[in-house]
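Data availability (excerpt). The following record was deposited with the supplementary files.
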Amino acid sequence: MAAEEPDINQRIWQVVALIPSGQVATYGDVAAQAGMTGAARRVGRALKNLPHDTRIPWHRVINAQGRISLAEGSAAQYTQRSRLEAEGVVFQRNGSIDLRRFRAFRLP
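Predicted structure:
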């Protein structure tokens, strides 16, 4: 299975690269689009393995509740929110994003 890891990461990263500016996808959305329905946690692991200087828009991936999953108050959480807001994504008062409005992939 370890031999498959880079291929799985590449598949996930390719899906994330398709998320348009100003839109988001959940970890589960990305997993489904990569042909791995139910593997949301695996998507998180792939995103952690992105090269530091990546151009893949990792910041467009959020959790199923429409929230950023990074630690509250962390530099990474601040970066993700700032990048999303710069693209026009609006956060509600409770800190979540309206998935009906900003979700990139419409799953059946």
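Summary of structural features: DSSP finds five helices and two strands in the chain.
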